[in-house]
């Protein structure tokens, strides 16, 4: 199997690449900042660069001799309250998480159609169950799923498209949020990285392409509730947020000042 993985030098990417390499796949990665100890070949690529992406993807596909599987893993997070006007941080998340994936996928379409290949999208539980104070990430991941749905309709005669929905995994993606005083502690239950890797492999290697794959049993329940009982999940998240405000967990966090003030005003 000939595989291209974006975000290959990050926490998820390195683990996915290493496992595929162990299974005997030919793997090339793309990353903005490749590392000397990456488990596979990783080409430097800024997926926000319209001109650079097609050339680097072409180089990767040439090295592989074709393409059977694209794993769109690259993504970033960060604080972005919905009540504030979008700035550089919002644009950055949308450009990488959504448009970067779009650029890379578009550059791979011909090779994937030729091989009857697959695309695996690393989405997020937040694509269906939004958490407060992280509107850009949730919006980018929900839009990513919409893009995957469109791809499935357009390419489904030849290419399988699967979205994988991890919850929170401990990794540097949460560092900027924690630095802003908006840690996910108390809002999310962390899951092991191994489960995400196993689910990605399941999406890649199953006999028939799966449409949507949560990564844990709890994630499957959350996915079901968010899809079919969204008002209930809204109430659960809102109640959890209120509890964090009461506990003082968001005190001093500038980006949460509006949320804290409104909750305190209703006591």
Automatic annotation (TrEMBL):
Q: Which GO terms describe its cellular component?
A: lipid droplet
Protein family according to the UniProt entry: Belongs to the short-chain dehydrogenases/reductases (SDR) family.
Q: Which UniProt keywords apply?
A: Oxidoreductase
UniProt KW tRNA processing keyword:
no
Mind telling me which InterPro entries this protein's record contains?
NAD(P)-bd_dom_sf (IPR036291), Sc_DH/Rdtase_CS (IPR020904), SDR_fam (IPR002347)
Give the transmembrane region(s).
none
Q: Name one GO molecular function term.
A: acylglycerone-phosphate reductase (NADP+) activity
State what protein this is by name.
Short-chain dehydrogenase
Specify the taxonomic lineage.
Answer: Bacteria, Bacillati, Actinomycetota, Actinomycetes, Micromonosporales
Top-rank taxon of the source lineage equals: Bacteria
Q: Does the keyword Secreted apply?
A: no
Question: Would you kindly state one Gene Ontology biological process term found in this protein's UniProt entry?
Answer: triglyceride catabolic process
Native source organism of the sequence: Micromonospora maris
């Amino acid at each position: 199997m000939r595989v291209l993985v974006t975000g290959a030098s990050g926490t998820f990417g390195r683990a996915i690449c290493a496992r595929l390499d162990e299974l005997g796949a030919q793997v090339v990665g793309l990353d903005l900042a490749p590392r000397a100890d990456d488990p596979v070949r990783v080409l430097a690529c800024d997926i926000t660069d319209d001109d650079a992406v097609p050339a680097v993807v072409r180089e990767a596909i040439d090295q592989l001799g074709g393409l059977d599987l694209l794993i769109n893993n690259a993504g970033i997070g960060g604080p972005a309250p919905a009540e504030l006007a979008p700035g550089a941080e919002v644009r950055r998340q949308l450009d990488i998480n959504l448009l970067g994936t779009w650029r890379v996928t578009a550059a791979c379409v011909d090779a994937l159609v030729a091989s009857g290949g697959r695309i695996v999208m690393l989405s997020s539980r937040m694509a269906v169950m939004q958490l407060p104070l992280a509107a850009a990430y949730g919006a980018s991941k929900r839009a990513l799923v919409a893009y995957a749905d469109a791809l499935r309709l357009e390419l489904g005669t030849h290419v399988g498209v699967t979205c994988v929905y991890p919850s929170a995994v401990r990794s540097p993606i949460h560092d900027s949020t924690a630095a802003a005083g908006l840690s996910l502690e108390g809002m999310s239950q962390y899951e092991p990285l191994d489960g995400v890797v196993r689910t990605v492999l399941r999406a890649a290697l199953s006999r028939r392409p799966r449409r949507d794959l949560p990564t844990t049993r709890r994630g499957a329940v959350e996915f079901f509730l968010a899809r079919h009982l969204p008002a209930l999940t809204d109430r659960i998240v809102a109640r959890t947020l209120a509890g964090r405000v009461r506990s003082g967990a968001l005190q001093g966090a500038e980006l949460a000042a509006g949320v804290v003030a409104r909750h305190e005003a209703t006591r």
